[in-house]
Specification:
- This protein has 264 residues and is mostly helical.
- It folds into three domains: 94 residues, no CATH class; 64 residues, no CATH class; 75 residues, Orthogonal Bundle (Arc Repressor Mutant, subunit A), CATH 1.10.10.
- Helices cover 54% and strands 6% of the residues.
- The chain has a three-stranded antiparallel beta sheet.
- Helix 9 packs across helix 10.
- The longest helix has 17 residues.
- The radius of gyration is 18 Å and the shape is globular.
């Protein structure tokens, strides 16, 4: 567990939130996220997104019940509020890095859903081409939470988690899912650096986090992409003499910099 100061920072920056419950009901819902971010402007409020789903039915759900069933986990998972750091930066990078959108969605969801984070190790540790069954995820969660989930809930949860990793590009196949390597982008690296920085990492350690590991690339590739992100004005980055300096100040507001207690 983080210390009190780090807990406060995480809370203020909408990072590592308490269980959103998203994967108890749905997946990372990449298609729905894409539709909402395409249909609504960057200035949209949380209420605008909520109305778009429930009233305007931009997601084309067949019934009011289906709209509600989709809206609650979707809105809770990503926040959809420009005052929330992780969503605001997600939205900014979404418009700058179309190729990185599946990874941006996964990184944000990982930071906001502890159940998804718990599934990361069984998936990311697979070698390319190696398969994974829902039973593997079920066994891991059953061992970690012996009294939390019933058999049917656990089965559905495992299925949704694997589906989410498929949507992000880490798994392929349907009846049998197997590991594939994703292709990282400059936007995804910038977001991973942000998450690592909020987590308390600095320097080289920013490229050795769960967030960086999710990008499926060796450190030197991530450092090259960080340089690209810096040229795009998304990061401050220096590398030389075996020392790496990277920070996400260009992505943050003055308030967020103050929360982190860093100079700007």
């Amino acid at each position: 567990m983080p210390d009190d100061d780090l807990s406060r920072i995480w809370s203020e920056l909408s990072f590592m939130t308490p269980d959103t419950g998203a994967h108890l009901a749905r997946t990372i819902m990449l298609a729905e996220l894409t539709t909402l971010l395409t249909q609504l402007p960057a200035t949209a409020s949380h209420d605008d997104y909520r109305k778009a789903v429930l009233v305007e039915n931009v997601l084309a759900k067949p019934t009011a019940s289906a709209r509600r069933h989709c809206a609650k986990p979707l809105l809770r998972l990503y926040g959809f509020d420009p005052d929330l750091t992780l969503f605001r930066v997600l939205r900014a990078l979404w418009d700058r890095d179309a190729a990185g959108r599946p990874l941006l969605a996964m990184l944000c969801a990982l930071a906001r859903d502890p159940l998804l984070r718990e599934s990361a190790e069984p998936v990311l540790s697979l070698r390319p081409g190696e398969s994974i069954a829902a039973a593997t995820i079920e066994a891991a969660f059953s061992a970690a939470h012996p009294d939390r989930f019933g058999a049917e809930t656990l089965q559905a949860l495992a299925s949704r988690l694997l589906s989410s990793w498929g949507q992000s590009g880490h798994l392929a196949g349907r009846s049998t899912r197997h590991r594939v390597l994703v292709v990282p982008t400059f936007g995804a690296v910038a977001y991973a650096v942000l998450l690592g920085f909020i987590e308390g990492r600095r320097g080289q350690l920013l490229f050795e986090s769960l967030w960086a590991r999710t990008l499926d690339a060796p450190t030197y590739v991530l450092l090259e992409l960080a340089q690209v992100a810096a040229r795009q004005g998304l990061l401050a980055f220096k590398k030389g003499g075996g020392v790496v300096e990277a920070d996400p100040w260009p992505l943050l507001t003055d308030r967020e910099r103050k929360v982190l207690g860093e100079p700007h």
